[in-house]
Structures are given as C-alpha cells and as structure tokens.
Amino acid sequence: MDKLVIEGGLPLQGTIAISGAKNAALPLMAASLLAPGVHHFTNVPRLRDIRTMERLLTHMGAAGRWNHGLRLDTTAVATPEAPYELVKTMRASVLVLGPLAARYGRARVSLPGGCAIGARPINLHLRGLEEMGAHIELEGGYVLVRCGRLHGTTFTFDQVTVTGTENLMMAAALAEGETVLENAAREPEVMDLAQYLQEMGARIQGAGTAVIRIQGVEELQPRGPHAVIPDRIETGTYLAAAGITGGSLQLTHCRPDHLDAVIRKLQAAGLSIQVGRDTLRVAAPEDGIRSVDVTTWPYPGFPTDMQAQFMALMTLGNGVSVIKEQIFENRFMHVSELKRLGAHIHLDGRSAVVRGVKRLSGAPVMATDLRASASLVLAGLAARGRTDVSRIYHLERGYEALDEKLRAVGARIWRERE
User: Fold this and answer.
1) Burial class (CB in 10 A: 0-12, 13-18, 19+), 274
2) The domain at 2-19+230-417 falls in which architecture?
3) From 300's CA, which of 37, 74, 235, 372 has a CA 20 to 30 Å away?
C-alpha cells in the first residue's frame, strides 16, 4: 500500500487542468443499462471508483473499452446483479437499482459500502421504487427487486438525496406515465445525468430545480459522445491549495458557475479569484487568510464535500472560524489528524471551532475518507517539514493524478510504499 510524502512550505505556482467529475460519470455509466447498445462518454476520470463501476457492468454482461473516452456496450447485459465483492467499497453501486428495475423488471444489488462519514441509508430509493410498483425485499445484505413495467407517481423526498434523485429519475425514464420528484437534489451532477437521458430520448423537465417531472417513454437509445462535466470538488480543492500555500494557480477546463458558494467563501477568506467562462485564476492574500464561518447545505449551498478542505485552510486563519456540518453526522474524522499537524480545533456537536495558528508542522497522519484525505494533503503542503499521509487509496477514489498535478505546480510530493 502506498502513502504520500509531502515536504511542505512551498507556494504553488502554475496551471492545473481539472478532470471530469466522478460523481457525474458514475450515474452516467449506470444509465447505460437503460438502453442496449454502445454508449460513449468523454472526459471520464481514471479513478478507482470508475474502474469498480466498469467491472460491475462487465459482470452484468456489458463490454467496456477505453477509446477516446469510455465506450460501454450494454447489448449483452443479462445478469441484473451487483455482488457484494464488487460494490463493498463504493456506495454509488446503488445507482444500478433504478435502471435494472426499469429495463429488466428485476435486480439483486448488494447494500452499498463506501466512505465511513455517517449513515447514508437508501430507504428513500426503495420507497420511491415501491411507489412506482416494485416489490422489494431485503435478504442477506442484498436488495431484491421484482416488478412489471414501473408506473409514474408523485414522490416527495423526506430529505434531499443526490443518488436517490438520480436513481428514481432513471427508473422513471422508462416508466408508464408521469413521475414527479419533489424536494429533488439540484446538483450539477443531477443535471448532467438528466441531459444525457434527454439525449437518449427521455422526457424530463425541471432538472436543477426542486421539482423534476419525467414523462416515461417506451424505450431509449444510446447516444454519444457525451462529455462528463468538470469536477467542481477537485476545482475547489485546488483553489484552497493555492490559498493555504500562499501561491497562485490557474485552473482550466472547469465550470466556475458550479462553484458559486465555494468561490464566495474563499473570497471572503481573502483569496483573489478571477472568474472566466471555463477558467479560474486564484491568488493567496498577501496579508494572510481571514477566518470565515461556513455551514454545509445541499446545492446550491456550500458543499459538504468541500468542508474538510475549507477547514484545512481555516487552520491558518487570522481568527476563529465556526464550521457547521449539516449533511453528515460523522464528517469530522479529519479533525484529530489536522490537530497532529498543529491545528487548534474544538468540536461541539456538529460544529468545529477552528482557531487559526501561525504555522503547521509536518507529522505522520492517516486518511479516513476521500475528502478528509484531501484536507490532510492541503495541510501537509502548508506545513513545515515532512508529512506522511497513509491510506491514500481513499484519494484514488476521487482525485485523478493528484500527486502528479501538484508536482507540476511546484509541490514536493511523492509516493512511497508503507
């Protein structure tokens, strides 16, 4: 197993190209199950979770080929099953439930795994499918689904769920009649999936708002090439990296319009950010980072997936910052590791009170989940001395070539075997 070694204290300078969004690519790959044929996706990041989803689809009978992007041929899919061995590390595996039920009328899908950042039950996915006519049983850690053709319904999510919205939207695309999803997720990844479904022939209105209407059709046709949207969380992570190291970066191939809440908070912290159509220029403040409060909310609010990285930045703030986590109840596991680097953080329920310090010092730390890993890398880039970040397989789930991109802009970072 590899670890990352960082010799911190150097300002980052240069240009970084942003990769495609994992959280957009995974539902697109699942959507390929809705229509037999070849689906072509470009700007797909080469990540551990993408490889896992590709293996899962291959297990079902699909054929994947990397040629100017990812081409998935779902013509021969005949095994509507997602076994535990393939999906235990990836929660996005649940996204195959809706497409399998809609196209095959049956599915056997292992309950999902993934990062340990709090309870993320799939009960809303299952309730929505039941209201569309599916019969669902839980047996031996698996979800068993049987149904005829699904039918439209009006379903209100008790809480906003991105994967729940995506799952039911895919299922409704082939259902009979109209489905209305209320309190739906509004994330750009949901909009990207809706766009591809429409390219396939689905009839969807309201994606990107809290109410989505889907008029079911008899069949869908594979389409492509469809370009996966840029990763807004990777973009935000590199913006924070420029700030915490006292550097300046140009980010290309990004979507600044997907990052309004993050950009506003970083500007409030003193970072200079120039916004282009698909570029961002960011420079750290000369007079130091200002402490800023932040609360995570569903999109278009400040994303929970940027909370840990923003906390790393706030460890060097000039005052006190209060960071409230409203999405997941167990997403402060990076706090103890940041404190090993010299951060001053006090936890109070779902709030973290961060009192800025003048400097961080390198130390061995251990990653606990994907975004916690990113926060430790950011802190290590700013810390004096050597920081060893272990368990970086979390990073490989969500950041494409992170160490290579950082080295290209001046970071001293490399891999070693643990």
Assistant:
1) exposed
2) Alpha-beta prism (3.65)
3) 372
